Amino acid sequence: MKIRIGTRKSRLALIQTELVKEKIEQAFPEAEIELVKKMTKDVPLLLLDDVLSELDSNRQNYLLNSIGELQTIITCTGLEEFVNNRFEINRVFKVSDGVIHE
Q1: 66 vs 16: CA distance, rounded Å
Q2: What is the C-alpha to C-alpha distance for residues 29 and 72, in angstroms, rounded to an integer?
Q3: What is the DSSP string of 8-53?
């Protein structure tokens, strides 16, 4: 599995990205991870595709607490995981029979 992580070149962004990279490496030791450093004024976007189902509750909590203020899209099969972890949810979209509902 190859994972590319986009980051800005600022010192803070690189430190934060290294922390995320370490957590992904712990969860998926077989993954090949590449950091993509860019100069941009855009807000970074973190996409977690059903990753919580692969982690135990301690790792789930650690990952969710590590996200901080990043703009994040998380796909999951159960919303209660986020509610139980006191995760602030701005918008929720549900897919049912191939149709997206807000």
Answers
A1: 9
A2: 23
A3: ESSHHHHHHHHHHHHHHHHH-TT-EEEEEEE--SSPPEEEEESGGG
- Cβ(65)–Cβ(77) below 8 Å: no
Mapped onto helix, strand or coil, the DSSP state of residue 8 is strand
pTM: 0.45
Q: Do you know the residue count of the chain?
A: 102
- Cα 22 to Cα 19: distance, rounded to the nearest angstrom: 5
Please name every residue paired with 73 in a beta bridge, in sequence order, or none if there are none.
Answer: 47
Question: Per residue in 42-74, pLDDT tens?
Answer: 666 788 887 777 888 788 778 877 777 777 887
Q: And the tokens for 5?
A: 């992580």
Over its C-alpha atoms, the chain yields an Rg (Å, rounded) of: 15
Domain boundaries in the chain?
1-38, 43-102
Strand duo 99-101 + 94-96: pairing = antiparallel
pLDDT mean across residues, the chain: 78
